[in-house]
Amino acid sequence: MVKNILIYLVLAIFIWGIPIYRIISSNKTTRNEKIAWLLAVIFISWFAWLFYLLLAPIMKKW
After folding, report:
1. Which one in 6, 34, 42, 44 has a CA-CA gap of 20 to 30 Å to 12?
2. % helix / strand / coil in the chain, to the nearest 5?
3. Which residues, 6 or more positions from 59, have their beta carbon under 8 angstroms from its beta carbon?
4. CA distance 51 to 38
5. Is the pLDDT of residue 59 over 70?
6. What's the CA gap between 49 and 60, in Å, rounded?
7. d(CA 57, CA 62)
8. Domain ranges of the chain
9. What is the pTM (predicted TM-score) of this model?
């Protein structure tokens, strides 16, 4: 019983961490944009990551 709960917990943390890892490792955005997107993903979850995939980068690099 406890083992199953731990497996589900680890799986949930792994799945929740995928967008965070992808944003951190991306070259599409600047440091400040990454911070904003990470905060959005943490507080809004996967919907923010979908917006990240569609909208990033917000500003073009000069």
Report:
1. 34
2. 75, 0, 25
3. 30, 33
4. 12
5. no
6. 19
7. 12
8. 2-55
9. 0.71
pLDDT confidence of residue 11:
93
> 27-36 long-range contacts, Cβ below 8 Å, gap at least 24?
28/56, 28/57, 29/56, 29/57, 29/58, 30/57, 30/59, 30/61, 33/57, 33/58, 33/59
What pLDDT, on the 0 to 100 scale, is given for residue 48? 85
Rounded CA-CA distance 19/35 in Å is: 13
- Note the pLDDT tens digit of each residue in 12-58: 889 888 888 989 998 888 899 899 989 998 888 778 888 888 888 76
pLDDT surpassing 70 at residue 60: no
